[in-house]
């Protein structure tokens, strides 16, 4: 068996933890269950992670990273801001529909952490991370679509996270694709209303 680096071993354990969480639930995801799933000795866990909390944080980040697709799919020439933003949001939604079990795990981690004294900070870090990632994704989205946002980006990121978080959870409950996409398109219309073409802003006279 090839010797893995610490980074590769962390990746292996994080992926094993995701599989255990999907199969058995977050509350049953013990360090022993994770190393058994990964096929490694218990000592490998303590070599890679200081605590189960750190593992959970890594799991959250890993799921978030792969469920935010690149922010630059091709757009038809002459597409409106709404059409550009709509295409980008639908690209995100494709990831939600492709990995529903992983998204369900993230909500379960949040509830698990909030109900346990000493773990509440994990949930706070989880949502701070979400806001940071979504803010960066909004910046990438604007760049890919040739737009600039006309409202404060931090506020827009928090608002958008609330919208997407709620839409995702609702869809996980009812699996109503038609209404989910209709709501997503409505959010795209809102984003288009607070965006302006970057070239027009750049050409605007100073002062």
Question: Concise description?
Answer:
This protein has 207 residues and is an all-alpha fold.
The averaged pLDDT comes out at 87
What gyration radius follows from the Cα positions, in whole Å? 20 Å
Question: Number of DSSP strands?
Answer: 2
- Low-confidence parts lasting 5 or more residues at pLDDT below 50? none
Q: Which word captures the global form? A: elongated
Please give the largest β-sheet: 2 strands, antiparallel
Strand order of the largest sheet: 1-2
Number of helices: 10
**In percent, how much strand structure appears in the residues?**
under 5%
Q: Distance between termini?
A: 66 Å
Structural class: mainly alpha
Order of helices and strands: HHHHHHHEHHEH
Give the % helix.
Answer: over 70%
